[in-house]
Amino acid sequence: MLQSVQRVKAACPLFTQSDIRPDMKGLLIKVEHGHSKRVWCALIGKTLYFFRSQEEKFPLGQIKLWEARVEEVDRSRELDDDLKACGRSLDLASFIIAIQPQEQTPVYLLLESRHEMDSWRYHLSVAAGTAVGNVGTEFEQLVGKLFQQDGDPNSQIWRHPLLCFSKKALSSPLTTLPSPALQTEALKLFKTCQLFINVAIDAPAIDYHVSLAQSALQVCLAHPELQNELFCQLIKQTRMRHPYLQPGPLQGWQFLALCVGLFLPQHLFFWLLQVHLKRHGDSRTEVGKYVVYCRRSLERTQQKGERQARPSRMEILSILLRNPYHHSLPFSVPVHFLNNTYQVVSFDASTTVDEFQSRLNQDSGMRKTGLSGFSLYTDDPTGRHLEHCLLGNIKVCDIISKWEQASKDLHSGKSENTRTIRLTYKNRLYFSDQIRGESERERLLLAYQTNEAIIAGHFPVNKELAVEMAALLAQVEFGDFGRPFSASGSSQSKSYQTLKQVLDRFYPKHYRRTVSEEQLRQLLQHLSARWSSLRGRSSSECVRIYLTVARKWPFFGAKLFQAVCVTSSLQPNASVWLAVHENGISVLDHNSIKLLLSYSYKNLMTFGGCKKDFMLVVRHCSGTDPSKDKPTEKLLFAMDTPKIREITLLISSYINSAHQQKAIAHHLSAPALMVAQPISLKSKDLRSKSPPLEHPSKAPTRL
């Protein structure tokens, strides 16, 4: 029994490919051996799976459809005994499909509508490989016959009016659809395609074509059943009947170029698209170059999977205003660093954040993300002072599109073209044992990130040290100080303005608030003296000194979150900092930033949002604190909701990284131990000398 369950589980692609899209799915009545049961059906490839519900991942059963006979049951004739035995269920359904696998008993599917029956029958027949060319719409039958002829270029079927460009509107969809509502949407899609192709693109009014493409593709993402239909319509509108074999309008190919970067058609329509692209690809013509790009984009979508969001305005403009054939990575966006520099990174429609970061690291001279601890952030589309860390498996184009849509929704549906997404690259996870391999660029950016913490008051420095640190970064940023500054100097002088700029960028804000005009001049004079003393020192040397000083603080590299104690051993309503670092979580005093409490990750039981607060459940080690009667303690901190999410994900990342590093260390050390201390398998004392097995402690759970 267990083996059969494992075989079914292994055979279902939903377990191995979470993003897989069934060709057909729906709640149907299944009849087998005279018993009826309402089940969720999903057709994936050439297999029909049955589930208890839509949410289930473990199938109740499956049918291999290849070479099975699929046909509609005529209810006017004598019904099979199995169907008669199901009784009342038969009265609820108006249509019946019989599936007869080879050397197996038949299975019946009961359906309520003609549209649903036609759609299921067509897709089941295609999966079975039987009756291809005899089922479905006229367009689908023509494609089936071409498939049987292996796409013979001399076949007269290619000249059929239904397969070629038409100025007239469609009277019915090209593909079989399961409901009248989807059929209506299919006809609207064709009108959108006609408008996109027939209305000439005008650069000042290009947002008209952007809106057409986005609305059509959004409908197809919301209703995947229409994706085959859209591809068939675009293939039809990019094939000319006269002159024969000539590619259709350029704007039709541009629309197709947008589609293949998002999703792909299924089964025979995928074959039709491949034949269509192969026939018209030509690097000598403008249209042919778009076709070649479509082929490249199709391969990338096959490798990386389908997209989640419609194309952004930036993506559509890039496709429409310049031929993407000339660039293997047709899109580009600047990535900003904390030292006010940026790096332009190119990508395509299927590039993931991991691939994007890998290219960024290579271009900017940095190590892999897993070693450097740097991550990509995006600003908040609402304009709030928030940043969002990007997950590695998400596609960059989806991120830009969702950001753009959120910004558009904020402005009552109007696109704000003046504001675009801002990507920032900075350190997220800091590990002290990774210092040895740091690149010069990493050290520079880490110094500027430390400066951000100093300015914001998240890093403890006295006034004297603050001036020293500011002078070091001034030497990095501006080089040698030009001329000495005296306290009696003019506020309009160049040296005064430069020193004022250094204070604004590199000196803590809370120290500047209480400074009088006279104290400011003395501070500037002191800064100029410290800066002048660094004359001749290189940028890399100053960065090294800066980080050497900064790393003396025990919580260097930690991320600080402002919070208010709700329930804990600390004073209620006290403002504190929660410092998340490689060794655990520490509670720091808000004013002095001195340590109050600290918990290692191994003593962390549970963490995450609890109603509107952030919760930590910690375990107290026996003997460490006799005053603690309970083995565990629940700590609640009031925080902003976005910060609760950020701190929860950051703690998770540190814990996961620690487990990964232990696994790697164990994997590397195990062979060495075996070589260093070989053990004879014939030894009688083998069992007694074996070390006792250690049971791993339960990992903390995230709420």
Automatic annotation (TrEMBL):
Alphabetized Pfam families for the sequence: FERM_M, MyTH4, RA_2
Organism lineage string: Eukaryota, Metazoa, Chordata, Craniata, Vertebrata
InterPro entries according to UniProt: Band_41_domain (IPR019749), FERM/acyl-CoA-bd_prot_sf (IPR014352), FERM_2 (IPR035963), FERM_central (IPR019748), FERM_domain (IPR000299), MyTH4_dom (IPR000857), MyTH4_dom_sf (IPR038185), PH-like_dom_sf (IPR011993)
Name by which UniProt lists this protein: Pleckstrin homology domain containing, family H (With MyTH4 domain) member 2
Keyword set includes Repeat: yes
Domain annotation FERM: ranges: 331-662
Assigned keywords, A-Z: Coiled coil, Repeat
A GO molecular-function descriptor: actin binding
Gene3D superfamilies: 1.20.80.10, MyTH4 domain (1.25.40.530), Phosphatidylinositol 3-kinase Catalytic Subunit, Chain A, domain 1 (3.10.20.90), Pleckstrin-homology domain (PH domain)/Phosphotyrosine-binding domain (PTB) (2.30.29.30)
Coiled-coil ranges per UniProt: none
Keyword Protease annotated: no
GO biological process per UniProt: negative regulation of actin filament depolymerization
Residue ranges annotated for the MyTH4 domain, each copy included: 165-320
PROSITE patterns on file: FERM_3 (PS50057), MYTH4 (PS51016), PH_DOMAIN (PS50003)
GO annotation, cellular component aspect: cytoplasm; cytoskeleton
